[in-house]
Design a protein that fits this description.
Layout lengths: L4 E6 L3 E6 L3 E7 L2 E4 L5 E4 L1 H4 L9 E4 L2 E2 L2 E2 L2 H14 L10 E6 L5 H13 L5 E5 H8 L10 E6 L4 E7 L2 E8 L3 H16 L1 E2 L2 H10 L14 E8 L5 E7 H24 L3 H10 L1 E4 L8 H9 L3 E3 L6 H10 L2 H4 L7
Parallel strand pairs: 1-9, 9-10, 11-17, 17-18
Antiparallel strand pairs: 1-2, 2-3, 4-5, 4-6, 7-8, 11-12, 12-13, 14-15, 15-16
């Protein structure tokens, strides 16, 4: 078997692998569990994620990616190798060509680190593309026409906002306020208001089940959820009930950062392209697009239609799949080390 073409969405929260002709074959948390004493990797992905907050002292579950870039090179490489092995990406005779995504404003050093990690984990030729561009393609936008398209990709570590035309990014920004920050906001709110310590996984459940940032979020029928944690005063387990109205207040500051960043991108957009965006609307992709009401809030603030892409979590991975078909044309865009 000759080398395959593989697309990787190397996210802060999740890693998705798309194999040409097969679609998305892997979607697992970007977590590695290591034994602190021996420095051995014990588990990767879903198995390691189950250990988060539940391990004895000598075992730590870490995220080797931070804010869309590599924070721990060796463990990123170990994680990628594990995932590529799991999907049988490497054959005996040849190595796969890999297309990997990165945030828009990372440095060339950070880009090289991503390429090097992909090469060391078994890639032959490694191509790198900017995330919002790939997300736009995965969301079904035709970015190769001479007209303006805007995409807001809210991931785990970063939110990438870009206006695209003629297959390239016209204006873009990347901010470190995204899904992970929402979790931290919820944790801090519960800690401050209820003197209760909860884990990241509990915060994520609150975010997906009751959180809303819709403009009329406070007037809507509040949803509530029982959560458990450790009382900071007594040290004992305790259960509280949290409502969507409370979480609305906790998330507003971070959500406003995203709104402001989107406004800044629109302010720098040529007027002809702005007119196109009013017609076509803005597409929301990434896991953060699933936050209840974020599309309504952005539409109200930006004064343009805002649409959540059909499968926001998989837009980048699906986009790499479409771009793999054009890999040969991209050969000249390969970043050399």
């Amino acid at each position: 078997m000759f080398g395959r073409d593989i697309g990787i969405d190397l996210g802060t929260a999740n890693v998705l692998v798309h194999i040409k002709g097969q679609g998305i074959v892997l979607d697992e948390p970007a977590v590695v569990a290591i034994d602190n004493n021996t420095k051995q990797v014990l588990a990767v992905g879903e198995e390691a994620f189950q250990m988060v907050g539940r391990t004895p002292g000598n075992i730590v579950a870490i995220r080797p990616m931070k804010d869309g870039v590599i924070a721990d090179f060796d463990h990123t490489e170990a994680m990628l190798s594990h995932f590529l092995k799991k999907v049988n990406a490497k054959s005996m005779l040849s190595k796969p060509r890999i297309l990997i995504c990165c945030p828009t404003n990372i440095t060339s050093v950070e880009q090289k680190a991503i390429i090097e990690a992909a090469e060391k984990s078994g890639g032959k030729n490694v191509f790198i593309e900017e995330e919002p561009k790939v997300a736009a393609i995965g969301a079904g936008m035709d970015i190769f026409q001479p007209s303006g398209n805007m995409v807001i990709d809210i991931g785990g570590g970063t939110t990438d906002i870009a206006v695209l035309s003629m297959g390239s990014i016209v204006t873009a920004t990347s901010i470190k306020t995204a899904g992970d920050q929402f979790d931290i906001d919820i944790l801090n709110y519960i800690k401050k208001e209820y003197k209760l310590l909860v884990g990241v996984r509990t915060a994520e459940t609150v975010k997906t089940e009751v959180a809303t940032v819709a403009p009329n979020g406070k007037e809507q029928e509040p949803k509530d959820l029982d959560i458990r944690g450790r009382d900071m005063v007594s040290g004992l387990p305790r259960t509280i009930t949290i409502t969507s109205v409370e979480i609305y207040d906790a998330l507003m500051e971070s959500v406003n950062h995203i709104v402001q960043a989107a406004k800044n991108v629109l302010e720098r957009t040529p007027p002809e392209l702005s007119a196109d965006i009013i017609d076509r609307g803005v597409f929301l992709t990434g896991g953060g697009a699933l936050l209840t009401g974020i599309d309504e809030l952005l539409a109200e603030e930006l004064k343009v239609p805002v649409l959540v892409a059909e499968d926001p979590m998989h837009c980048v991975a699906n986009g790499t799949g479409i771009m793999l078909d054009n890999l040969d044309k991209m050969s000249n865009k390969k970043v050399k080390i």
